[in-house]
């Protein structure tokens, strides 16, 4: 063990079988036997490269909200189907009202859905409601507010240009045009467009199941009596909520004791799900068995150790075709590493091709940020809008990775790069924003 005093620690600290480049860059950390930390970007690209596309399934339109479309959807007909009025008013010939004020004879009344019998000629108008088809002969609509509102004769007070207040045939959708692309997350607007395209059923990505294993001898389930030194298994709940929020189905598989065989057995049963998330037991403690158990099962380790805080010990493995995300046990670390690594994987597996990673914006700090500077820090902030309408970030008062309440109300992670120990209030800081692409 290279003269290391802590043989067990070393044996657990070297599970990497590949990529060998990572091992060859091994650093002298502790007993000099750990792989080099990779960057967050490198970890994210390894995650995304490892993800496979889930199957598609056909569902009812009413169930489509939040799902990811897996087919291109084309318009079945022109929308609007013909030129129609954008206003309640009078359908006229622009040339007729060029010398307004003028009085025109009202020859028909056109509520939406009614087709004109006659057509508009010189000196005449039709009263028309929003959405009614523009009658032949008319080229524009004078809104009712610019008239006296008459029903047999109407006084038009202002001239209009030809085409005013007319919605053109096909200006929303043209028959045959693709109006929604595969990979689109279906929101309320997309549901409406699907309905317009006559789609009462639609092909979407199957929702994956995600096993959640919480490791730790100290853990008890929420609601159970809490003994000395025990900790409530809150991560299983926060992670399950994150999974559900990202369009997948959480399966909380309970608490796994800090024991290699128990961890192996739990991982094996978790493989019934599409993805596996573990919490805790991935660091270098003597009772951190997740990597060891994965190795024992013959998993391929795709990375372990990321140059970030919180979240340094995150491990990604592939075991029998399933991706296993080993997240750290600290409540903040597990949530932050979910947002940075698991969420992008889910989006990709669902078929999204853009917005896989959270967007970053430069946000002005309302209070200073402090960091040790040894690794890139992701610090919890609440992003809001100030009186001037600019994005501002208020750091959470505690930034400890064990302080779960520091995540409450947080909607952003301010990034403080390695080597930087503070950023003053008033400065801009690159901040990842959550909730834009869930
Ligand atoms: P570990 O990553 O296993 O070393 O755990 C780091 C810290 O996170 C310890 O203080 C654990 O008690 C705590 N922790 C681990 N798992 C959970 C969990 N499921 N819920 C809440 N806290 C946890
Ligand atoms: Mg533990």
Characterization of the model:
The protein is built from 8 helices and 27 strands. The relative contact order is 0.13. A 6-stranded mixed beta sheet has the order 15-12-16-20-19-17, sandwiched between helices. Strands 7-4-6-5-8 form a 5-stranded mixed beta sheet, with no helix packed on it. Strands 21-24-23-25-27 form a 5-stranded mixed β-barrel. Mean pLDDT is 93; it is low at 1-31. It starts with 6 loop residues before the first helix and ends in a 5-residue tail after the last strand. By secondary structure, the protein is of the alpha/beta class. The structure holds adenosine monophosphate and magnesium ion. Adenosine monophosphate binds next to α5.
What attributes characterize this protein structure?
disordered N terminus; single chain; binds magnesium ion; five-stranded mixed sheet; Molybdopterin biosynthesis moeA protein, domain 3; 438 residues; binds adenosine monophosphate; 4 domains; 18% helix; alpha/beta; Molybdopterin biosynthesis moea protein, domain 2
Q: SSE layout and pairings?
A:
Layout: H1 7-13, H2 20-24, H3 40-50, E1 56-60, E2 73-74, E3 84-85, E4 89-92, E5 102-110, E6 124-128, E7 140-143, E8 153-156, E9 166-167, E10 178-180, H4 188-196, E11 201-205, E12 209-215, E13 219-220, E14 231-232, H5 235-245, E15 249-256, H6 260-270, E16 275-279, H7 290-296, E17 300-304, E18 308-309, E19 315-319, E20 322-327, H8 331-350, E21 360-365, E22 369-370, E23 376-385, E24 391-395, E25 412-416, E26 422-423, E27 428-433
Parallel strand pairs: 5-6, 12-15, 12-16, 13-14, 16-20, 18-23, 21-24
Antiparallel strand pairs: 1-11, 2-10, 3-9, 4-6, 4-7, 5-8, 17-19, 19-20, 21-27, 22-26, 23-24, 23-25, 25-27
Helix pairs in contact: 3-8, 5-8, 6-7
Magnesium ion binds next to loops.
């Amino acid at each position: 063990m290279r003269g290391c005093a802590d043989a067990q620690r070393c044996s657990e600290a070297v599970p990497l079988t590949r990529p060998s480049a990572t091992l060859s860059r091994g650093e002298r950390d502790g007993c000099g036997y750990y792989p080099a930390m990779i960057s967050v970007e490198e970890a994210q690209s390894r995650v995304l490269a490892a993800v496979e596309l889930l199957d598609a399934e056909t569902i009812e339109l009413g169930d489509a909200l939040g799902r990811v479309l897996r087919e291109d959807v084309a318009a079945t007909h022109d929308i609007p189907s013909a030129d129609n009025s954008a206003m309640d008013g009078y359908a006229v010939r622009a040339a007729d009202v060029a010398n307004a004020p003028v009085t025109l004879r009202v020859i028909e009344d056109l509520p939406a859905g009614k087709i004109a019998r006659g057509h508009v000629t010189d000196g005449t108008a039709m009263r028309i409601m929003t959405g009614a088809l523009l009658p032949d002969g008319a080229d524009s609509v004078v809104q009712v507010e610019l008239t006296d509102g008459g029903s047999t004769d109407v006084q038009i007070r202002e001239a209009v240009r030809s085409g005013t207040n007319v919605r053109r045939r096909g200006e929303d959708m043209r028959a045959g045009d693709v109006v929604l692309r595969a990979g689109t997350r279906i929101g309320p607007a997309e549901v409406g467009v699907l309905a317009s395209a006559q789609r009462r059923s639609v092909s979407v990505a199957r929702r994956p199941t995600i096993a959640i294993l919480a490791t730790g001898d100290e853990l008890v389930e929420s609601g159970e009596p809490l003994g000395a030194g025990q900790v409530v298994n809150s991560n299983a709940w926060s992670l399950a909520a994150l999974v559900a929020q990202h369009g997948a189905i959480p399966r909380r598989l309970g608490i796994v004791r800090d024991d290699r065989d128990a961890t192996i057995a739990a991982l094996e049963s978790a493989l019934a799900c599409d993805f596996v998330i573990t919490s805790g037991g991935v660091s270098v403690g003597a009772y951190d068995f997740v990597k060891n158990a994965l190795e024992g099962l013959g998993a391929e380790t795709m990375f372990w150790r990321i140059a970030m805080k919180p979240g340094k010990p995150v491990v990604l493995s592939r075991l029998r075709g399933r991706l296993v995300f080993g997240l750290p046990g600290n409540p903040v670390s597990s949530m932050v590493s979910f947002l940075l690594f698991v969420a992008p994987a889910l989006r990709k597996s669902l078929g999204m091709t853009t917005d896989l990673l959270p967007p970053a914006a430069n946000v002005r700090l309302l209070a200073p940020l402090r960091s040790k500077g040894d690794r890139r820090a992701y610090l919890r902030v609440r992003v809001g809008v100030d009186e001037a309408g600019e994005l501002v970030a208020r750091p959470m008062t505690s930034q400890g990775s064990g302080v779960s309440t520091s995540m409450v109300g947080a909607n952003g992670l301010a990034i403080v790069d390695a080597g930087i120990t503070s950023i003053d209030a008033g400065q801009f800081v690159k901040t990842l924003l959550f909730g834009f692409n869930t």
